[in-house]
């Protein structure tokens, strides 16, 4: 069993400005936690603090209820997979995997069993005598993971492990890491800047920005109930459409917002924290807009640009009210630049963010799936 | 397609080729050739086969001096290998440790003597070690070692070691810089990976960093070798062409100079000089060959 | 990099590192400082307390006066300057041209030619001294600065060619091809495209070549020992041999020989160190 808690972790290099401030996070046994955010958000620093490569300025790091702030990495029971793999160039694959065990004074025979076992799981048994430079990128990646596995750590740390691989290999390795997680029932903290990696791998995703946790939750939670504007625009592709407006009606179960340009939108969100007259942002994802009038909230616009993806296409519109909007349309439907089209969405599909960028809770987020199915 | 003669390539190459060929390559070959000739008293040169080598290695007047110079030169080289290069490694290792303050300043200062003329360095140390001036004695007195002081440069038993250490002092900057450059080229993540696996700084140094810079250690070895077996300036400026006391600091460079230009009663002989130069050439070539065929081949260069 | 696990141990390690480095730095600088300090003192000051800084009582420039009066120090200095700079310019120009030819064009014998030049890196030119002297006698170049320049250019070319051609191989192909597509001639490409691009390497080569030339004793001693052609290194060597008992003069001449290098180093040490570090990584 391993359980990790980060309590108020803070990092500062100069004692004045915080790179990370007050990070609180619980990581349960067997959980796959992904730290995601734009570069410079502090996610790698946080991982390195958990690892023991960066000093913890303030706060407590506990692994299995024991405070480990002052323990060197090797005594924390962690293993790290580095972005560049960091294989020892002068050692064979076998020796690379054996190094940590040897340092720890492990019995040779036991080390051998562990190494061969890990190599079998990772399908690198035939590469054990090779040097790292004789391996492909994907094989090096496996060795790096193997080096972590043999140590049987309580916690695996991955620092952007896929960023040095090409696109096809990245998808394949992603699947393999997910599989490995299931097989080993390992507890993993994984850093990436790629939201697709985060969404596909994580049991829990921690979105970071400016040294703060913006939101932590399951992939679906983040998608359906983004806590603020940052998370809303960071998760999902293309970016969520945002329309500025002023609250006209604020009820517990909905808001009516008067958008710039004069159009009104009803959103099924909790309106208790919002007052009439507040400036807000209304959000709607491209994939939640329909190319017809069936939704209760309707817009019309002219197509500026079409991106064909095959199964779907992205239509970039200028609305009659002047704002820009992206719609995900059906791939079979032919749309040309300059076409005037009508679009709509149910009121359950909308997000509303108050002046500070915080989300009003959506009341029927799951309804979108049902609504879409009826529509199709 | 008809190719015209690539005039531009010829023009690019010609100046360097001509100067290098005439003033470096040709003299070297000509020296090897001259070593098979002998000079008569009138200055005329005639073919002599291996006579010069026979004299050099067989005639006690010559061979004693030659082997003495060779022995001294080997000692000179070994002292550099045992002190200069390990010291360079130590300094470079300390400087390249993460978070060491003033590393650049230390580097700059320690490299400075390398840039000064060997002649100047020789004189500076000669003054400092001079019993007349008494600086060394005085400073040894601070640690109550004044009785240990001796005119090291003047004693037969200590002169060569003293000169070697002066040379080490001057040139330690070169291995230090080369090794430093190699050490900082090792990616941080590799060191961190070993650290995360529990290896101590000491263990990381010997099992990760040193193996990864072996090619550079090989390079410093061969550079030291060539430099040492070609040395002359230091001994000549401190001890003169006679490399005293009693030839105890004589190395191949000074021996070559005397063979060529003569000293005291012995008249200089270009052809004997050429023979000594050829011997030096063979020693250096041997060292370089060993380096390329046995050492450099075995040491893989790691690209990170 | 590594977190503080045991503050005291880490502090001690860092302290020990500083002591070793600072200690050796002191050892490296002390002799040079000692000479410079004492060159500014009177004879009595030099012997009474060698380690003291000059004060109003012991301050004296008598050594410098002696050096500048009884030797042609400025002439020697000028000679060194002429020889070093001329050699340097020729090495860089000819070296870059040859490096370009070897790096850019594949032609019959290009590999052998590259090896031929590489040979000169490992085998010291001094070994050919007997023939070089003979050659210079027959060319009537003994006791001329030209003789020194020719030898130093021959000595410096191999390393220059190696470093520069390695650098030139890294110039993107597209750049040269773009120029060729525009119909630019090979010479123009070299002088206007290639040369400006290799400036950083040129600086590295300049340092590597300049220092041994400025400091050399061997060839000035053998090829140009005449009074008009002495370089500063040879001049100082002979001056000290002559005035060995005049401590003021000896110290002053050493200081004069050290100072130019010291001043240059103060200005260029950063580029120099960076050059060595970058060059050595390859």
UniProtKB/TrEMBL annotation, chain A:
- The residue range of the signal peptide is none
Q: Name one GO molecular function term.
A: ATP hydrolysis activity
Query: What NCBIfam families would the database entry show?
Result: PRK11650.1
List the record's Gene Ontology CC terms alphabetically.
ATP-binding cassette (ABC) transporter complex, substrate-binding subunit-containing; maltose transport complex
Q: Which EC class is this protein assigned? A: hydrolase
Native organism: Amantichitinum ursilacus
Keywords for this entry?
ATP-binding, Cell membrane, Hydrolase, Membrane, Nucleotide-binding, Transport
Does the keyword section mention Cell membrane?
A: yes
According to UniProt, the name of this protein is: Maltose/maltodextrin import ATP-binding protein MalK
Q: State the EC number(s).
A: 3.6.3.19
Among SUPFAM superfamilies, the record links this protein to: MOP-like, P-loop containing nucleoside triphosphate hydrolases
Q: Which CDD domains match?
A: ABC_MalK_N
**UniProt keyword Cell cycle, yes or no:** no
Q: Where is the ABC transporter domain?
A: 4-235
Q: Which InterPro entries match?
A: AAA+_ATPase, ABC_transporter-like_ATP-bd, ABC_transporter-like_CS, ABC_transpr_MalK-like, ABC_transpr_MalK/UgpC-like, Mo/tungstate-bd_C_term_dom, NA-bd_OB-fold, P-loop_NTPase
UniProtKB/TrEMBL annotation, chain B:
Topology in the membrane? Multi-pass membrane protein
Q: What keyword terms does UniProt attach to this protein?
A: Cell membrane, Membrane, Transmembrane, Transmembrane helix, Transport
Residue stretches spanning the membrane: 7-29, 76-97, 109-129, 159-183, 204-226, 272-294
Gene Ontology terms describing biological process = transmembrane transport
Asked if the keyword Cell membrane belongs to this entry, the reply reads: yes
ABC transmembrane type-1 domain mapped to chain residues: 70-293
Location relative to the cell: Cell membrane
Q: Which GO terms describe its cellular component?
A: plasma membrane
Under PANTHER family, the record lists:
BLL4140 PROTEIN, DIACETYLCHITOBIOSE UPTAKE SYSTEM PERMEASE PROTEIN DASB
Identify this protein by name: Lactose transport system permease protein LacF
Source organism of the structure: Amantichitinum ursilacus
From TrEMBL, chain C:
Q: Does the keyword Transport apply?
A: yes
Subcellular compartments: Cell membrane
Would the keyword Membrane turn up in this protein's UniProt record? Answer: yes
InterPro entries xrefs: MetI-like, MetI-like_sf
Q: How does it sit in the membrane?
A: Multi-pass membrane protein
Report domain ABC transmembrane type-1 positions: 77-268
SUPFAM superfamilies listed in its UniProt record: MetI-like
Question: Where are the bilayer-spanning segments?
Answer: 12-37, 76-100, 112-133, 145-168, 189-214, 249-268
Keyword annotations for this protein, in alphabetical order, are: Cell membrane, Membrane, Transmembrane, Transmembrane helix, Transport
A Pfam family of the record is: BPD_transp_1
Please tell me where this protein is predominantly located: membrane
Q: Name one GO cellular component term.
A: plasma membrane
A GO BP term, please?
transmembrane transport
Q: Which CDD domains match?
A: TM_PBP2
- Record-stated family: Belongs to the binding-protein-dependent transport system permease family.
PANTHER family to which the protein is assigned, alphabetical:
ABC TRANSPORTER PERMEASE PROTEIN MG189-RELATED, ABC TRANSPORTER PERMEASE PROTEIN MG189-RELATED-RELATED
What is the protein's given name? Answer: L-arabinose transport system permease protein AraQ
Taxonomy of origin reads:
Bacteria, Pseudomonadati, Pseudomonadota, Betaproteobacteria, Neisseriales
Gene symbol? araQ_3
């Amino acid at each position: 069993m391993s359980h990790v808690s980060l309590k108020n972790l803070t990092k500062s290099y100069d004692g004045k400005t915080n790179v990370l401030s007050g990070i609180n996070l619980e990581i349960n046994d067997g959980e796959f936690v992904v730290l995601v955010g734009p570069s410079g958000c502090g996610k790698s620093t946080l991982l390195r603090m958990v690892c023991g490569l960066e000093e913890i300025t303030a706060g407590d790091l506990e692994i299995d209820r024991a405070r480990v702030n002052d323990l060197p990495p090797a005594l924390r029971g962690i293993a790290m997979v580095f972005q560049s793999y960091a294989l020892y160039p002068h050692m064979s694959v076998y020796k690379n995997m054996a190094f940590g065990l040897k340092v720890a004074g492990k019995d040779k025979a036991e080390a051998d069993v562990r190494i061969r076992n890990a190599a079998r799981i990772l399908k690198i048994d035939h590469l054990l005598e090779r040097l790292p430079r004789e391996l492909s990128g994907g094989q090096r990646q496996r060795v790096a993971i193997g080096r972590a596995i043999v140590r049987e750590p309580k916690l695996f740390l991955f620092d952007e492990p896929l960023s040095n691989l090409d696109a096809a290999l990245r998808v394949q390795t992603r699947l393999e890491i997910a599989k490995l997680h299931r097989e080993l029932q390992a507890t993993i903290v994984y850093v990436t800047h790629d939201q697709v990696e985060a969404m596909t791998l994580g049991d829990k995703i921690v979105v970071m920005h400016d040294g703060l946790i913006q939101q932590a939750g399951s992939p679906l939670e983040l998608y359906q109930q983004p806590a603020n504007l940052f998370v809303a625009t960071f998760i999902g592709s293309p970016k969520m459409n945002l329309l500025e407006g002023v609250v006209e009606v604020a009820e517990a179960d909905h808001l009516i917002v008067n958008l710039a340009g004069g159009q009104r939108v009803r959103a099924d969100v909790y309106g208790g924290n919002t007052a009439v007259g507040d400036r807000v942002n209304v959000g709607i994802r491209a994939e939640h807009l329909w190319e017809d009038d069936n939704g209760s909230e309707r817009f019309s616009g002219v197509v500026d640009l079409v991106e064909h993806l095959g199964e779907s296409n992205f239509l970039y519109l200028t609305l009659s009210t002047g704002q820009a909007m992206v719609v995900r349309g059906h791939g079979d439907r032919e749309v040309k630049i300059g076409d005037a089209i009508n679009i709509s969405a149910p009121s359950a599909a909308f997000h509303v963010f108050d002046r500070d960028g915080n989300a009003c809770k959506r009341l029927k987020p799951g309804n979108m799936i049902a609504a879409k199915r009826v529509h199709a | 397609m008809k190719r015209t003669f690539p005039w531009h390539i010829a023009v690019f190459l010609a100046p360097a080729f001509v100067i290098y060929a005439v003033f470096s390559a040709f003299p070297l070959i000509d020296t090897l050739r001259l070593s098979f000739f002998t000079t008569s008293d009138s200055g005329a040169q005639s073919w002599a086969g291996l006579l010069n080598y026979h004299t050099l290695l067989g005639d006690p007047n010559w061979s004693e001096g030659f082997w003495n110079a060779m022995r001294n030169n080997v000692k000179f080289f070994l002292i550099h290998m045992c002190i200069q290069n390990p010291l360079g490694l130590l300094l470079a290792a300390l400087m390249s440790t993460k978070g060491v303050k003033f590393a650049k300043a230390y580097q700059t200062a320690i490299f400075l003597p390398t840039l000064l003329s060997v002649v100047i360095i020789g004189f500076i140390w000669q003054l400092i070690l001079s019993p007349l001036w008494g600086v060394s004695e005085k400073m040894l007195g601070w640690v109550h070692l004044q009785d240990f002081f001796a005119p090291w440069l003047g004693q037969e038993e200590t002169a060569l070691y003293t000169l070697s250490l002066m040379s080490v002092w001057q040139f330690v900057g070169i291995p230090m810089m080369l090794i430093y450059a190699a050490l900082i080229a090792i990616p941080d993540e590799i060191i961190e990976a070993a650290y995360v696996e529990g290896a101590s700084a000491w263990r990381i140094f010997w099992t990760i960093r040193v193996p990864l810079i072996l090619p550079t250690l090989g390079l410093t070895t061969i550079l030291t070798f060539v430099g040492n077996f070609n040395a002359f300036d230091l001994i000549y400026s401190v001890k003169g062409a006679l490399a005293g006391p009693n030839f105890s600091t004589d190395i191949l460079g000074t021996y070559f100079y005397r063979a060529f230009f003569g000293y005291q009663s012995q008249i200089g002989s270009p052809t004997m000089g050429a023979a000594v130069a050829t011997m030096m050439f063979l020693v250096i070539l041997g060292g370089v060959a060993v380096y390329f065929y046995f050492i450099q081949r075995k040491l893989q260069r790691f690209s990170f | 990099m590594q977190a503080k696990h045991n503050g005291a141990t880490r502090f001690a390690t860092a302290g020990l590192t500083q002591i070793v480095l600072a200690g050796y730095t002191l050892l490296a600088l002390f002799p040079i400082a000692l000479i410079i300090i004492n060159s500014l003192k009177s004879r009595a000051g030099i012997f009474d307390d060698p380690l003291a800084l000059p004060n109003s009582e012991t301050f004296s420039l008598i050594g410098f006066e002696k050096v500048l009066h009884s030797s042609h120090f400025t002439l020697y200095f000028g000679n060194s300057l002429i020889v070093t700079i001329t050699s340097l310019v020729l090495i860089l120009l000819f070296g870059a041209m040859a490096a370009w030819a070897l790096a850019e064009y594949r032609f019959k014998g290009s590999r052998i030619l590259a090896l031929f030049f590489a040979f000169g890196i490992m085998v010291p030119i001094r070994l050919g001294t007997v023939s070089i002297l003979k050659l210079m006698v027959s060319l009537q170049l003994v006791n001329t600065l030209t003789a020194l320049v020719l030898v130093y250019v021959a000595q410096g070319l191999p390393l220059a060619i190696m470093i520069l051609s390695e650098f030139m191989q890294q110039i993107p192909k597209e750049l040269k091809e773009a120029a060729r597509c525009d119909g630019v001639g090979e010479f123009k490409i070299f002088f206007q495209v290639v040369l400006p691009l290799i400036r950083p390497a040129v600086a590295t080569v300049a340092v590597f070549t300049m220092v041994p030339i400025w400091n050399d004793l061997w060839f000035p001693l053998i090829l140009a020992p005449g009074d008009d052609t002495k370089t500063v290194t040879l001049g100082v060597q002979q001056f000290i041999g002559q005035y060995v008992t005049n401590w003021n003069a000896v110290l002053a001449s050493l200081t004069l020989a050290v100072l130019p290098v010291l001043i240059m180093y103060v200005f260029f040490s950063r580029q120099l160190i960076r050059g060595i570090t970058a060059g050595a990584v390859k």
